[in-house]
Protein 1
Amino acid sequence: MSTNAQNPIGVIGAGTMGAGIAQAAAGAGWSVNLFDINQSLVDQAKENIANRFIRLVEKGRISVEESVGCQERITTTITLEDLSDCDLIVEAIVEDFDIKTKVLKDVGSIATKAILATNTSSLSVSELGAASGFADRVVGMHFFNPAPIMPLVEVVRGELSSEPAIQRATLLAEAWGKTVVQVSDTPGFIVNRVARPYYLESWRIVEDGVATVDTVDNAMQSLGEFKMGPFMLTDLIGQDINVATTRSVWNRLGKPSRLAPSVKQESLVERGNLGRKSGCGAYAHDDKDHVVPAIIMEPEEVEISEYLASAINAFCLEASCSTGSMLEKYIFARVLGGIINEAMWAVTEEVASQKDIDTAMKLGTNYPHGPLEWAGKIGLKKVQQLLAALNETVADNRFASPPFGTVSVS
Ligand SMILES: NC(=O)c1ccc[n+]([C@@H]2O[C@H](COP(=O)([O-])OP(=O)(O)OC[C@H]3O[C@@H](n4cnc5c(N)ncnc54)[C@H](O)[C@@H]3O)[C@@H](O)[C@H]2O)c1
């Protein structure tokens, strides 16, 4: 199947993601026609893209000629009929099922051969396909923000998505320099699901009065080599956005206790403490150089049984390159154990291959290792022992792991 750059790409929605996707495709040599509902929106998008290209030239990443060429390859329109000759059309409009369905239906009747890719984060690709009437042509192409920079695309297979449509979307994203993971149409796909325990288990540690937000962040950075601790990261993402993703994934998965929203995080959002954008979240962000914990507490000493301590020590010995206090090891093991467990559930439920789950977590969230690679390094038996020991300390059975044998790591 060709990935011929002569065939134009359509992008619907010229907001954050649509403009970024247009830039990514044009940067790789494709002609792009970018649509939005009015002229000022597409003009603004063109201006934003031009500014980003100016910065790339200033940084010496591309030449002036390349920048001009890329920008010339992006045309804009407010007439949907102009997308009729497109090969692939990426929809990146508001996250609303009815609005997306209408747009897919309209554009599918205009561009009768085009693959219709939705960039939805939280809606069902199968349901969008069925409602639009073009289920075989509808696939998911889940880009990450900022789309020109983030290397990962989750290509989502709706129940009736045709194999050629999946393969072509995959080839095109790869031709734009992206790494593609293929994923079944399940809530949160890979990244937004498997990352949940990083945030949720950390919030539960604070809710339990075990440690402060900065202690948790430091433990995850020092023992786990995560680039940013969960509280600083959720402050950057926006606590409200993080809560909304949790609620959506949890509801759509049938409310498993593992992924239940954090009461403390939700009450923070209700009080308007959304993170850096509102000046305060888990931390108070007075300015870039002055960030202090905003959730003040006196941690209580955590009771760790001998059985749990030995499981934690065995887990950490293999999982971490550095040593830490028992509290730090407990925090790290609890959070990483939750992530590995979620990855194992995702494998068991055939969300994606083990390799793709690892790739997605490394490229979509910058994890230092894929969770299943980590499990392989630690040893599945030690992971299972940790989860069993942790599960004895909770009332909601959330560390219960999938049946032994469904995951094999090396
Ligand atoms: N922002 C992110 O970090 C991110 C990451 C991955 C996926 N997504 C998904 O990408 C999609 C777009 O998100 P965004 O953050 O770019 O939103 P945005 O609000 O920045 O942009 C949405 C654009 O869609 C346009 N639009 C609205 N209705 C339209 C219609 N009927 N026809 C054509 N255009 C219409 C709006 O005018 C706007 O320009 C959503 O589905 C979102 O879930 C977002």
Protein 2
Amino acid sequence: PATDARLARFRDNGRRLFQSRIGQLELSCASCHDDNWGKRLGGSVIPQAHPTGYPLYRLEWQTVGSLQRRLRNCMIGVRAEPFAFGAAELVDLELHLTERARGLLIETPAVRP
Ligand code: HEC
């Protein structure tokens, strides 16, 4: 993760967004990815939501896609209005995820179902 002190408030906002309940299902990112990773949601295992594989090839997309595309999918999944591609909120979430994955190896290009 980037260490520039000027990023702190954006990273803090990303952490706040990660923990805020959204959508008609009223779930936060953390409800699934911190509190219930490893369990099943329908046919999928809930991962820890690390950004280390992006951009990656997703079978469901039949192409390579960005981390923002993945985050928007999760927002749509809880029936929230997804942030637009390039929105400041998505960038803040990406910053938080990068901080949260500190120390993990980069694995891109990765593959996901
Ligand atoms: C209802 C549970 C749920 C919520 C809430 C949720 N996700 Fe997810 N998320 C999933 C599942 C399930 C997958 C894996 C989907 C698959 O493999 O098809 C996933 C995948 C991801 C991945 C990809 C991880 C990888 O290894 O490729 C990231 C990153 C992610 N979510 C971030 C978020 C963020 C940020 C939020 C909040 C805006 C969020 N998710 C909200 C269930 C959730």
Protein 3
Amino acid sequence: MGLEQQLEIPVLTTSVEKMVQWARRSAIWPVTFGLACCAIEMMAMSCSRYDVARFGAEVFRASPRQADLMIVAGRLSRKMAPVLRRIYDQMPEPKWVISMGACASVGGVFDNYAIVQGVDQVVPVDVFVPGCPPRPESLIYGIVQLQKKINETRI
Ligand code: SF4
């Protein structure tokens, strides 16, 4: 007699690794970290029109201790860089970073001494989302790319 007949309920078998990957990619919690105009598009993404909840990533957390994704949305000033790094360090592992927009990724139009020319100089970046600003759909696409990356991460 098969397992399903013995238990009289449907049974799904999988590996622990696949289950952990599924859980991690399906409940990404971003830390609140809007720095400039890109943050407006990030907020729009979490509202009903774009509804990032469809991808399990709508629960923005004010505490880095409860977050596993940092979306750097906007230009990063040199004064702000140590703060960003400290918040990143306070996030528990595993954690990921999305660099949103031209300013966060390469400094954008702010090619000057006050702006960090790429947030990857301060924290490791998993996904870069281009644009000035990227539309909410672009950021959702970035989150889907991150989910694929999480799914391929060996435990
Ligand atoms: S990329 Fe454009 S929209 Fe985003 S922070 Fe820079 S100037 Fe603002």
